[in-house]
Amino acid sequence: MIALTPINPESLGAPHGYSNGVLVPAGARLLFVAGQVAWNADQEIESDDFCVQFDTALANVLTVVRAAGGSAESIARLTCYVTSREAYLADLATLGKVYRQHMGRHFPAMALVEVRALVDPRAQVEIEATAALA
Predict the structure, then answer these.
(1) Are 18 and 80 in contact (CB under 8 A)?
(2) Can you tell me whether residue 103 is helix, strand or coil?
């Protein structure tokens, strides 16, 4: 496993649930994971619940990372696209539990972006990632 180094300058204050930056060591291979929505194997969304979609989308990201030989700790960056910032903020406690079930206490560099729509009309969440692999 590659050791990623969180970069959190004191002048930016302490981040909560993310890192301001993540340094990938020289020689690591980078895996770029395409945006994953809450699709099942038939490319269908099974739930309209925001937290369930977040759970499935993050699980799909990790499926790709694991297929390449990595783990949650290999992820250096996550970008979460949501169709409703309000839906994201409405249940942060549940989202935090879902996140920790997949990622533990690993907090890569992250961004949350509100968008008008995603690839699937039912999709409320899409997550893309960059992972560092040995």
Answers:
(1) no
(2) helix
